[in-house]
Amino acid sequence: MSELRRDTLSDRWVIVAENRADKPDDFEQSGIPHRCPFCPGNEVDTPDSVATYFLPGEKPAGNWQVRVVPNKYPAVTPGGVNGNRRPLANVLGGLHFAKEGAGIHEVVIESPQHVLSLSDLSPEQASLVFLSYRDRLAALRQDRALAYGMVFKNVGAAGGASLEHAHSQIIATTFVPTEVRREIAAAQQYYKTEGKCCYCTTLDQELAAGVRFVGQSQSFAAFCPFAGRFPYETWVLPRRHASRFEESSPDQLAELAAFVRDLIGRIESALGPLAYNYIIHTEPFDTPRLDHYHWHIEILPRITRTAGFEWGAGCYINPVPPEEAAAVLRSIPVGKTS
Amino acid sequence: MSELRRDTLSDRWVIVAENRADKPDDFEQSGIPHRCPFCPGNEVDTPDSVATYFLPGEKPAGNWQVRVVPNKYPAVTPGGVNGNRRPLANVLGGLHFAKEGAGIHEVVIESPQHVLSLSDLSPEQASLVFLSYRDRLAALRQDRALAYGMVFKNVGAAGGASLEHAHSQIIATTFVPTEVRREIAAAQQYYKTEGKCCYCTTLDQELAAGVRFVGQSQSFAAFCPFAGRFPYETWVLPRRHASRFEESSPDQLAELAAFVRDLIGRIESALGPLAYNYIIHTEPFDTPRLDHYHWHIEILPRITRTAGFEWGAGCYINPVPPEEAAAVLRSIPVGKTS
């Protein structure tokens, strides 16, 4: 259904996915009203689930708490080009490259309630969401055709969401995405010269310095990164070196879910309800456990808008110093939003 | 006033510019109404102009047509750190890098009329705008401290504009921005193996193939790039190899302004009024004329929203095949919007 393209001029990968234009949009002002496909009772509006989660003891009653379903408007598909509306693009003399947009695109419906943000979920509910991330990544890793699985969440129109009911997405691709490759290459370079993981080192330094530190739990820590792109950008890392998110234990996932949920609640306390994204950065499927890479979650509040300079320069303008954002976030008590 | 930062973790440059948070915003719904600082009579609301353009014969009457002024809320400043609210950030053991955000940030006020898009200007007015781009880039190139000058335009809230009165911006930096370096490196690599400019080659191929071709004038051609990030993304190139935009002649600039204005008018005819950016990609100040780089303008309609996948993957999902966009744009007669 979709096509993966790269050309020399832009040195970028693009997924051309025509069917994505058809998806419903809660935020489109001129859109026709539609019923929420993620609410209970409307399961027929989504493909059959690939995983379903229940609260302990509730399974027989059939009240799902989290559902993972194939995306009805996928950016990549298992069949690749089969069923394409057109053949692969005309590829010209070596400058262009096109192949089938093969992969898996899933949606994690995070709650039976029509809520908007991770902070609207109970800690138990959030825990099921993070458990589903782990399970799906672990399952997708078994598929030899796939090279990477990216878990991300879009909240609000400015965050690129088209439906408001709380959900995350997983896109597993047959290639390792550019940003992931760049990040790992930078970490590998540091490891080569310094003999240690740059994430572990940064974590130690940020905990010691304190100015950009936001908070920590038993196994996780959060800080506002020194060169954050967005106001209040916050990163969460396991305190102990680990390159694969999907090897976290259920206890760690419950702790992580509560920690991330609380951080988002703090950002919302500081800024009011807002659009945001978060992205789990974990290692590619086809690598051994890496000493130089450290999985992490990037929380990106979307209160600024990217403009011509950012698109042209690849350099971001952030009007809020990370030190200032971290001080505000530290000042909000943990669990205030629980 | 601002600070340039890079850390190893993100492998990105960020400009931390606190004063940018203070700028007025026409699109902020909760904002206090303010008078437009770009309208005639309100010149006192902007710093003194560094260049002013008049229609032939109008200079004595003082009716300016285009004004170039220093940005009142600059991302970079000539003084660098002087007047900073705080000292440079605490830099930790080699992983972080910070320096003064030195440079020049100017605004091109494109018209005395409170209009919104380049397509609202007369061809003569648009010509003065492009003339001002050239003049400012040529002047900034003389400053040995500056490495690059980026001309860009933001239209509409989704395009990152904060004021609606038609304007462009120029940010000249003491470093060559990441995206420009990547683009030039990819072009250099192609030149090394193929012995020719990849832009010249692409142009020849796109003109011959026709499917992504949009239109041409005597000296310029436009096509929708094979791996465009955004629906209806359109690139404009000089048909004859040239690496420096600012060496265009006044006649060429007039032709280019009319051509770009018409292309934007066609995109607006196809999609309705929309947010967009355009960016002039020209070679760095500190290089000789490059055989492997070809200046160009990227027009980026902003009808889709970047979401978690794009931020995490550096890979874009474009729901409109460039071939389809080009066919629509070709079908709209040239000059329809004049």
Main sheet record of chain A:
10 strands, antiparallel
What is the element string of chain A, with H for helices and E for strands?
EEEEEEHEEHHEEEHEEHEH
Structural class of chain A: alpha+beta
Q: Helix proportion of residues of chain A, in percent?
A: 25-40%
The beta-strand count of chain A equals: 14
Biggest interface reads: A-B, 90 and 90 residues
Low-confidence stretches of chain A: 81-85
What characteristic shape of chain A results from the CA principal axes?
Answer: globular
Name the beta content range of chain A: 15-25%
- Calculate the terminal CA-CA distance of chain A, rounded to whole Å: 42 Å
In round numbers, the mean pLDDT of chain A is 90
Q: Which oligomeric state applies?
A: homodimer
Task: Report the radius of gyration of chain A as a whole number of Å.
Answer: 20 Å
The number of helices of chain A is 6
- Strand order in space, largest sheet of chain A: 3-4-6-8-7-12-13-11-10-9
Descriptive overview:
The structure is a homodimer of 338-residue chains. By secondary structure, chain A is of the alpha+beta class. In chain A, 25% of the residues lie in helices and 22% in strands. The first copy, chain A, is built from 6 helices and 14 strands. In chain A, the strands form 2 sheets. Chain A has a 10-stranded antiparallel beta sheet, with helices on both faces. In chain A, a hairpin with a 4-residue loop joins strand 1 and strand 2. In chain A, helix 1 crosses helix 4 (250-271). The first copy, chain A, starts with a strand and ends in a 7-residue tail after the last helix. Residues 81-85 of chain A have low confidence and may be disordered. At the A-B interface, strand 1, strand 2, strand 7, strand 8 and helix 2 of A face strand 1, strand 2, strand 7, strand 8 and helix 2 of B.
